[in-house]
Amino acid sequence: GGAPIDNVKATVTQRFYTSNYIHDFTYLFGVDEVAGNFQQNNYGKEGLQGDPVRAEAQDGSGFNNANFATPEDGARPRMQMFLWARSGSTFQVDGPVSIAGDYDFLPASFGPLLLESLSGEVVAPTSGRNNLLNACTDFNNPELLKGKIALIDRGDCFFEPKAIRAEAAGAIACIICNNQAGLIPAGDVDSIPDHNIPTIMIRQEDCARLRAQLDSGAVNVTLQAPDFLDSGFDNGIIIHEYGHGISNRLTGGPDAFTCLFSDEQMGEGWSDFFTLALLAQMGDTGEEAKGIGTFPTGQSTEGIGIRRQRYSTDIRVNDQTYDDIIGTRAPHDVGEIWAATLWDIYWDLSELYGFDPDPNNKSAGNNIAIQLVMDGLKVQSCDPGLLDGRDGILAADFINNNGVNECLLWEVFAKRGLGWNAQQGDNRSRNDNIEAFDLNPDCVPAISILKNSTPLIEPGAEFSVTITINNNKTAAVTDVVVNDLIPFGATLVPGSLSGVDNFRTAGDALVFELGTLSSGALKRISYKLQSDPALFSNQLLFDDAEAVGATWSISDLSGRDTWRISTERPFAGERSWFVPSTPRSNDQVIRLVQPIIVEAAQPVLRFYHNFDIEPGLDGGLVEISTNGGLSWVPLDNEQLFRKPYTGRVASNTFGLNRQEAYWGDSKGYIVTYADLADYIGQRINLRYRFSTNAENPEFAFEAEGWFIDNIEVMDMYNFAGEICLTTAEGDNICKLPEQRGTIVETALPTSSQDLMIEGFQVRTFPNPVQNILNVSLRGADQNSVQLALTSLNGQVLERWDLESGLSNRNEQLDLSDLPKGVYFLKVQSAENVQVEKIVVQ
C-alpha cells in the first residue's frame, strides 16, 4: 500500500536477496525445518511447510518503523518495511529575525505524519498550580492555543497525552522540547487513540532560544514536511526484522509463538545482534562503533542510528549494563543491553578462536558465538528475562563445547551486570532486577576465605563466628594455616569449636592447621565468643518518631504528598515516619532540625525502614550536608555497609536522575547501617529524600511508600577480628569479617550523676569531655528545659533554650573553645533545677 516511489523494483530485489541470504546463512546454524524456519517446501523433512516470508517493500500503512509478524510453524509470516522521515529535516523559525533559520527535529511515532508544510505562531501553555510547562495536567490557559502551535516540555508523563491535550485546546501542531542533548522520536501509548495534529521534537538548546523570545514577543514557525527514505535499502533493518522470526520460532519451539511477550524479553536484542553478526566483515574489530538504522534516518554509517548508544566492546563507547533497562518504556531499550552482551561474546570468542566470514567454518570464534546464540534460544525457558537468556547460552556451551567457554562467558556477563549474584526478579517487569558484576566463583582459580559473625548483639552477649574456606584452584593446596584474631573484649566460649579437631593459640589469635585441601574442597569452622558487657556502641542521636517536631522538620521540595507521622506500621512504639507513594511528581524530605557534630571513633548512622516503592521509577535515599543545607550529597553504597540501596532509578524520575536509591518491596522492616567516617569532626545535617515521577493513570503502579523508624547516630563498637590464610604454595590472604563483623547494641553511658527532674532523666557523656558534650533527655514531656553552662564562680558562659516535645532528644554542646577545667551544667525546668559538674580536658 501507499504511494510508490521510483525505486520499487530495486527495493523488492534487495529485500528478496537479503531475506534469502538470512535464510541460507542461519540454516547452517540450526534454523532448519525442524526448528520451524520459513519455507514453502520442506522437501520431505520434518516441520511444517507453506510458510515463506511475505516481504512488503514501501508498505504505506505506517512510517518510521518496520515489523515482522510471526505465527506458528506452517503459517506464513509477514515483514513490513515502511518509509522513514529523514533525520536532519528541519523546521523553520520565520521570526523574530534574531532566531530565524532552520532547526533540526524528529517527528513523533504517533499521530499523522507531516506530509505538507504547516505555519503558525508558537505559544507555551502552562499546567497545574505551579504553572508547569510539561502539559501533564489540564492547561491553565487553553484559550491561548486555538489555531496556534503548542511548545511543551518533555518529562513527567507520556508524550502522546501532551499532544492530545494540545489538540483538545485547539492547537494545530505540537512541539516537544527535549530535556537532554540530542533528539529521539516521541513514542506513543498503545491504549490511547492517535490524535490528529502533527507532533515533533526539537533539541533542548533550540527550545531554550524559542522560550527566551516568547517572553518579549511572538515567535512564528513553519514545519517543513520531511523527505522520506526507504528502509528496504538498509540490509541491517531487513536482517533485524527477519531476526524476530528466528527468535520467536526458536524460543519455546516452532509452535510456541507467544514465548517472547514478557516485559523483559530480549527480541530486539537478538535482532540487533543478527544484524551486527551477519554484516561483520574480515578486518572489523569489536571496538569499532556500530549504529543500527543509520540509513533511513539520513545518517552516515558512523552515526548513532536509532539506539541510545552505538554497539562496541569498548565500554567507553557503550557502557550499558543490566540496570539500564530500569524505567524504560520501549522494548528496544531492553534489547540494547542484550545485544551489547552478545556482541561482546562474539568478539571475545573471535579473539580466542579466530574470525572467519565463512559460516561453514564452525571452529571460528565468530561462528561459535552465533551457534551459542541460536542454541541458547532453543534451550532457554519460555518468556525469558535477561538472566534466563544468560543461562540458556551457558547451557548451550555445555551441550556444544563441554563448557570450555564457561568462564569467558561469565566474564562478558559480569561486564554487563549479568554476573553471578545478579537478580532478575519478575520477568514481567523490567524495573525490579538487580545487577551484579561478579564471576561464577568456579571461574576464579584461587583459594578464598570468608569470616561471618552474628550481626548484632546486646552488651555482654555471646555471638557466633563462622569461617568458610573454598579451594577453587585446579590443584590441591598444602600446609594450610589459618590465623584468626580474637578481638579485644571477646573470649572463646569453651567447647564451642566445631569443624576442626584442634587449634592452638598465638597471642590473641586462634591458629588452625588444616594440612591439605584438595581442588574444590570446602571447609567450615565455627565457634562462639563471649563479649564484655562494659563494651557497647554509644548513642549520639536517636529519634523513634514518638515526639513530633523534636528532631526532624518536614520540607516540601515539590509536590504535595509530604512526610508525616504514621501509626499504621511502626517498627517499635506507636509511630514511625511515613511518606506515601503517589502517581504525581513529588519530591519530599525530612531533615534534622539541628545539625550534629560528628565526634566519634566509628560514627555510624542506623535506621529501620520498610518500603513498597515503584521499582526503578520512584526512590528514597539519604543525603548529607556539611554547609548548613546549602547543598546535599547522597550517601552511596560504599558507605551503606548493611542493606544498601536497591539500585539506580530511571533517568526520567522526578528529583532523582539515575541515582542509587531504595525501591521495590523490602517485605517488612530492614535495618541499614551507614559509615559516617568521612565526616568526623564536621558539623553535618541529615535528610531522607523521597521522589516519585508522574505516571499515566492507565499504567499507574500501586505502591504504599516509605516507613522509617528508630533513626540513630552512634559511635559504633564492633567485634571484627582479622583472619589470615597461608599455604605452602605461596597464598597469603587476609580479610576482615563481612559487614563489619558483630556490632554491639547502643547504650547510654552512665554519667557521674544522673539528673532526675520530675521524672525527666538527663544524662551527659562523655564526662570528662574534650570537644562535644552529649546531653540525653529521656522521660515525660516538658514545656521547656533550659541548659546553662557556668564557670566555678557562677558566670553563665552559654545558654541553650529547648522547647516542648522533649520526651526523647539528644543535644550536642560544642565545648571545644573552653579552656581545660571544671564547669557546671545547670538543667532547669519550670519546677526544678539540678546541676552537674563537667570536666573539660
How would you describe what is shown here?
The protein has 841 residues and is of the alpha+beta class. 16% of the residues lie in helices and 32% in strands. The chain contains nine helices and 48 strands. Strands 20, 22, 23, 26, 29, 32, 33, 35 and 40 form a nine-stranded mixed β-sheet that branches. β17 and β18 (509-517) form a beta hairpin. α6 runs antiparallel to α9. The protein is flat, with a radius of gyration of 33 Å.
Question: What's a quick, concise take on this entry?
Answer:
With 841 residues, this protein is α+β, with helices and mostly antiparallel strands. The chain contains nine helices and 48 strands. The strands form ten sheets. Strands 20, 22, 23, 26, 29, 32, 33, 35 and 40 form a nine-stranded mixed sheet that branches. The protein has a seven-stranded mixed beta barrel with strand order 4-5-9-8-7-6-10. Strands 21, 24, 25, 27, 28 and 34 form a six-stranded antiparallel sheet that branches.
Approximate strand percentage: 25-35%
Helicity level: 10-25%
Q: Major sheet, described briefly?
A: 9 strands, mixed
Overall residue-averaged pLDDT value? 87
SS summary, helix count: 9
First CA to last CA: what distance?
A: 91 Å
Structural class: alpha+beta
What is the 3D form?
flat
